[in-house]
């Protein structure tokens, strides 16, 4: 897998600060991804989302910290998710071209599996995509 348009280098302190804001510990594999790339666009970028009407879809952008475009930042997307889905503890980590989000599901202060959040419908719909971030990356394929 290749990542285009990676962000600036992060430190473990940057990630710890974000974890405080998010109210959850990030999975180690996702933390390593942030340290290595700090977001960006994957290639290949197609992923199957079982049960989603628009499947397969793409992973257009992985979010990062301190990115030039506000909507590509983890904290900006966290605020959007908290506003749109206040009854769920989700950390948005990526979006598709349709504006739907891939999120870490948070349980008991620990971010775990990846869910796809369909936001282009009246009420958000959630689909399990992968049990871990590593498995999400492994599921990316060419169109």
Structural commentary:
The protein has about 140 residues and is α+β, with helices and mostly antiparallel strands. The protein has a single domain (about 1-140), classed as SMI1/KNR4-like (3-Layer(aba) Sandwich). The chain has helices at about 10-20, 30-35, 75-85, 135-140, and strands at about 1-5, 40-45, 45, 55-60, 60, 90-95, 100-105, 110-120, 125-130. It has a 5-stranded antiparallel sheet with strand order 5-6-7-8-9. The radius of gyration is 14 Å and the shape is globular. The two termini are about 15 Å apart.
Task: Summarize the topology.
Elements lengths: L1 E3 L7 H11 L5 H9 L4 E3 L2 E2 L9 E2 L2 E2 L11 H11 L5 E6 L5 E7 L2 E9 L6 E6 L2 H7 L4
Give short descriptive properties of this protein.
9 strands, single chain, two-stranded antiparallel sheet, 5-stranded antiparallel beta sheet, 143 residues, alpha+beta, SMI1/KNR4-like
Q: Which oligomeric state applies?
A: single chain
Helix content: 25-40%
Total number of domains: 1
Class based on secondary structure composition and strand pairing: alpha+beta
Q: Largest beta sheet: what is the strand line-up?
A: 5-6-7-8-9
How do the SSEs run, as a string of H and E?
EHHEEEEHEEEEH
- CATH architecture label name: 3-Layer(aba) Sandwich
Q: Write down the overall mean pLDDT.
A: 94
Q: What is the CATH level 1 assignment?
A: Alpha Beta
Major β-sheet profile: 5 strands, antiparallel
Report how far the terminal alpha carbons are from each other: 14 Å
CATH superfamily: SMI1/KNR4-like
Shape type: globular
The CATH topology turns out to be: SMI1/KNR4-like
Unreliable stretches (pLDDT < 50, length at least 5) are none
Strand content: 25-35%
DSSP helical segment count = 4
How many individual β-strands? 9
Q: Any idea what the radius of gyration is?
A: 14 Å
